[in-house]
Fold each of these.
Amino acid sequence: MGRGKRHAQGNRRGVSHDSDRPASDATRVVSAGRRPEWTQGIVNPPVWRASTILYDNVASLRERGSNTHHRLFYGRKGTPTQWALADALTELEPGAAGTFLYCSGVAAVAAALLSVLSPGDELLLVDSAYDPTRGLALGLLKRMGIRTRFYDPLIGAGIAELIGADTKAILMESPGSLTFEVQDVPAIVAAAKARGVTTLIDNTWATPLLFPAIAFGVDLTILACTKYVVGHSDVMLGSVTAAPGHFERLRDTSFQLGQVASPDDCWLASRGLRTMAVRLKQHEASALTIARWLAEQPQVATVLHPALPTCAGHEIFRRDFKGSSGLFSFVLNGGGETERAALIDGLNLFGIGYSWGGFESLALPVDPHRYRSVTRRDDAGPMVRLQIGLEDPDDLIADLAAGLRRFDVAKG
Ligand SMILES: Cc1ncc(COP(=O)(O)O)c(C=O)c1O
């Protein structure tokens, strides 16, 4: 048996080669989705670009049209480049039925919601959702006659009281954007299942490696692959992975919307995926070192990192997550916009910019109160969000220490 063949069979059984021991996450990200029958043994699927696919005759065209799954048909239905990435993401979610890919994380959120909701339905959306997700709910979905009610990220089993006759979906994001509240996903899923409500989660922060959402009972799990899957800050991409019984509707809706992810972007994302487990370990270690250091600084009022007890939902994080990633926020002790800018503007190693999950560190001024409807914060000062990259954490700490000194000087 050739090596490639063994790899492919190992993938499909979800076990490591030559044993029945379940493959670890690090092993699965290396082998997931690799199919020698598509690539003839080339390790990474090359970029297969296509719109037109030619057929030998009318009969073969008709025959192919009746079964297009993982068969070249027309460019919008994908090529092995996209199929391999989608299959890899499915393999990383134990119990999942399939994955569809999108041109961005926001496009993935939109397709997932549109596959579930119809006019007259109600969506329950966590109050700490990513701002453009809120924008989708309050814009397009509202225009379509779909109502949104926001809920407290710490609601847990209390979500049952919000579920009404029209509630069709609950969209979680855990930890939440900017403020990192960890949600009680099992409690919310249990309440939803009891009432036949579909659950969705934006799992971008944890990825399936740190929180296998489908195994936790979630119906549709969304990743902005732009972040940790790609890992190099050079591609926009999204995915939705579905539990059995939910994939067909997701796929049909996505095809009807004309969604297709570029093969070039999928190729880069597949490259990124192979190192995701090892990158996440480093992001985790460095971010924890820096978060703990920040928590001891007098200029810092509080650190919002799910692995620290100062973060709301920390106990749930400890119960449910396999680890943490590299994004968190901290609140400054007093000061305002000018003092915060003094800290951020002089940083040498932290770029100022949106997004996260790449190899480079970023610092961003964030104002979560602008994006909340049913929860209020009473913070001691302005907030900064940090994406901790792969630089040496001691260098990053030195950079932040100088920033905190500038903050002190600006405060006077
Ligand atoms: C939690 C979360 N979800 C979704 C997105 C959207 O992803 P994209 O930028 O690929 O549309 C982002 C982007 O920052 C995000 O932080």
Amino acid sequence: MKALKLVITGIVQGVGFRPFIHRIAVKYNLKGYVKNSGGSEVEVWVEGEYGDLSKFIKELYFQKPPPAILEEVEVYPQEPQGFKEFYILKSTAIKEKHSMIPPDFSICSECLSEILDPGNRRYRYPFNSCAWCGPRFSMIYRAPYDRENTSMAKYKLCSECTKEYNDISDVRRHHAQGISCPEDGPRLWLTDRSGNKVEAEDPVLEAAKIIDEGYIVAVKGLGGYHLAALASNDEVVLKLRSRKNRPRKPFAIMALDRTVLDKLVYLNEDSLKVLESPAKPIVLLPKKPDTPASKYVSPGLCFEGVFLPYTGLHYLILLETKDRFLIMTSGNAHGKPMCINEECAYRDLSGIADYFLVHDREIVNRVDDSVIRFTDEKPVMLRRGRGYTPLWIKLPFNLRKKYVALGADLQTAGAVGFSNKVVLTQYIGDVDDLDVLIDLDKYLRFLSESYGISLSEAEVVIDKHPLYASRLLATSYEETYGCSIVEVQHHLAHVLAAAFEQGLFEDFVGIAIDGAGYGDDGAIWGGEVLEVYLSKNIYRRAGHLEYQPLDSDRTVHYPIRFFISILAKELGSDEALRTSMKYGLCELVPGGLVEIKALLKAIEMKKYSLTSSTGRVLDGASAFLKISTQRSYEGEPAILLESAAKGGRLVEEINDLKIVESGGSLIVETAGIYLELVNSFKENSAKDLAYTVQYVLGRGLGEAALSSLKGKRLSNSVVISGGAAVNEIIVEGIKDVLVENGLDIILPKRVPPNDGGIALGQIIAADLALKPYSL
Ligand SMILES: [Zn+2]
Ligand SMILES: [Zn+2]
């Protein structure tokens, strides 16, 4: 007889883990117990024959419930205690201070086959779920994850479900908190845009039918409302675009299964692994040339955002439509949060959707679909929401205090930090809209309460930018709770988030390739090389892209103005005007020649701020090459530039950027790229030039990082983060330089490199009290 105590951490609560342990313990004739203990831990005691114990351990790893993740399994040999049976002990006796809140899981294959089986009592039941799958975070009011703490509380289990719930041999439904059936579960119905019920024997079937007829249907899903529409029909897609006031930003396509996906995009083993994981995120994948999707779904892009149905409801809708793939885009008014209830839906979406497919289960927490793309052949998170929130990030050290971090301003998320953990909120959005800011407050409070952080004792961390809306929320916390506020530089937070998410815990160099962030000198930073000395609590701006003039916000929306501004700075107004006329650049702004002349005047009079932004340089090039001349969504010109460069070649004449030293900093000269673009425009294709601009920028930043590393004791891994850190070609440029010199790169994976991940870095910077210094 031997005995073992196991302490297992990871996603082990709310996934049917204890019944699973019970089953395999009984199978191998082991005695003892399993119980939830504090944190996200499960404690297991097993005693029995040596061979049985090792079989148990093996099965623990290889037969675990699909959504369970074993982060750590600690095994302690013990003296056998002579247990008579194997027990599932109640967790109620323990005060669960830090119970992990499970994320939402997509419907599992077992539940799916039940709803497709005419003989099953859950046949065509849209809300089927079990211990291995279904909503979690989106329907939880408070931790821990027990039915009475969720919006399933109001549905009383029928006798059949009760039997399953109490049956210890029912692996998927024993003690499964969210289960239901057609007898006792949520109800579904269809209405017109005024909320009048549309009589239908099967509302799902009816919804599918009207989608096929070209109507737009708002569908209440798991974490919010979607707008569902035919993706194959130009007219329908354009109708959706005009009603949603969204001229070009890509829509995601949900496809029934692998076979349907295969018609739309190129798949491989890695992308399928992500697409079919329990989180079922949207994945950006290369479009097939003969895709049946309308070209208006993702205009100008070589990628399509695709995902698989993650609830029974979505699956059943897709199954009944003729294409078996549909646009499924967030149901929100422009700039507003996605609707999670009927009040919002009928108010904000009645001008967009023709019909509404609604159910009576409350969505407690809004959670948008997550978005992932591949960069350097690895998945990178672009938007972290459903399926990943609120998983925590473990730090390699204990935080000194408790923190509430407010992120940045656009496409952002907040976070809380305590002990050795940081928990990011779901993707929140652009907090310059008051409703979105209120949402940020709501979810920060939810996480604070869940993890026992009182706002009066927390340190509140914000971005250094004096005009960010998140600062207003921080000020209100300060006034109400008297908490202290710490400011953190934007790009420092970016590189720290990436480094710590990937487990780097030494002095390092980070490259931030970004749109805009407030710099320590008051300029707008965005192409930065930072030396970060964790050991000395300091960081240094070792290099950056050359400062360029940025006269106004209008230039961000019409990026040819940036291009012309640089020409004017380098060549003077007269020459800049001549070049603009020669290449037809004046037609790329609404005000034509008059507007360009006014711009040149402003530059002459030095009416501008300075920026080292990578995004602006990319946008300007995209406009000059006439790939994208007007920005309708964040990052559009740069994203289209990357797409247009697919398959492009390096133009040798523009092969290298000059790097000069100035005041202890390395300056990567960007004006030269623009001048070379003009010079080589005639002899080269836009594709090759687009590729070259991005690659050369990457090389320039890589060279600056390399020089900064020379002779210093810094990590051999260079961290890359920021909104443009997903740009494959820039990353390739950086990597080529570093790899040639025996170094490698680190890209974030679980946390977005953009402002959706910045709150993690804010907490680390605040805790380590990192201060800037210059040589
Ligand atoms: Zn299931
Ligand atoms: Zn039932």
